Prior knowledge:
Strand order of the largest sheet: 3-7-8-13-12-11-9-10
CATH topology of the largest domain: BirA Bifunctional Protein, domain 2
CATH class of the largest domain: Alpha Beta
Low-confidence stretches: none
Largest sheet: 8 strands, mixed
Strand content: 15-25%
Helix content: 25-40%
Bound molecules: histidyl-adenosine monophosphate
Number of helices: 15
CATH architecture of the largest domain: 2-Layer Sandwich
Amino acid sequence: MTFQNIPGTFDILPDAYDAGGAMVYGSAAWRHVEATVRDVMRRFGFQEIRTPVFEPTDLVARGVGGTTDIVQKEMFAFTKGSTDYVLRPEITAPVMRSYLQHHLAQRGGTQKLYYIGPCFRAERPQRGRFRQFHQFGTETLGTDDPRADAETIACMVAVYDAFGITGTRLRINTLGDAESRPRYREALRAHLAPHADQLSETSRRRLDTNPLRILDTKSPDEQTLLEDAPLLIDYVDDASRAHYETVKALLTSLDIDFVEDPRLVRGLDYYTQTAFELESDDLGAQSALAGGGRYDGLAEAVGSKQAVPAVGFAAGFERLFLALEAQQVALPDRPDPAAFLVALGEEAERWVFAAAHRLRKAGLAVGLDVRGRSLKAQMKEANRQNARTAVIVGKDELAAQAAQVKDMETGEQCSVPFDELAEALKRSEV
Ligand code: HAM
């Protein structure tokens, strides 16, 4: 019996491969994309935070919200002893936990944090939707200033700009304060209740639990029912409206294009005020590259006595890769070794094995054959690994204490004394 990875997860290999119609990029491409994200975070002044991949179930249930799809259907949960755990479905609630636990507020100023890491949701896998996926994102904690909202959005957009991705759409909305949403929820429910028999089973269930989610419906019939539904903005308090106007003005001042979408509510319960999503047509059904918003009530929802105003975004690496692939952005392949050491005969094999170690300790990436194969097979392997040079050592070279060094591109060959090898290879490495 052999094993397969769990559907909705994938292996990242040294080289890219096709996983049933979807390309999985190689690990060098992932490293490059992660490094680019980190560089954007550095420029925007975010510091990295890393939190565990599993958390108490209660934190996620209270943070993300008990009626959300994530908590009701998508948690990978397990129990050990008397404690319930979940694999984190997102990283905002864990960051808030950490902020409160370590009293980061006492370190003065606002905390600007970013993260990169895996998240887990038991969703039905499809293009752009996985059960283990990888997020990057930011959280700015301890300020209700609209500039933090605009800075968050600007940072999110800057990541896609850094890769030259075009054709994205930024949608924004305001959800108002903590009281606005329940007021609107009731108005929406009252509007839809008389038409409950025309709703799908899922939407009928949502009518009771979380009617705002019906706004996301893809069904044309339900969309028709929603056409004259009340709009959230009419239920939003004045202070939130003013906040929203400032965020929009700030985005305009930064030349960041956006469209207002009065139906954008997002799938997590903790949002207040600003909510936003970045979309791309390159992705298919799962069109969201990234999303986020303000969550001024989350700290109290997870037990803080004091409110912590905060705002953030998160984005999926897998969807970023879909956009990179669609727009044919070139990404690096696996790194090439500087040299491949080729040995002829047992004595040379022993010398080469030790020489590779010395060269590696001197900082060079060096390949060698450890199967005692023919010259031809070793040269083929040097080629396959894309080595820039082949260093060939046989009886004659041992006697002369100098290796034959062959440039794999030009075919030029010269003799290099053993004790000058490291320096010569370093020069050719650039
Ligand atoms: P979210 O919209 O649930 O928000 O997820 C953010 C991003 O993660 C999505 O836009 C998408 O790119 C990616 N994503 C989500 N689920 C999957 C999946 N099953 N497979 C692949 N990619 C996925 C949040 O998680 C919030 N914590 C964002 C936030 C941060 N709000 C405030 N701060």
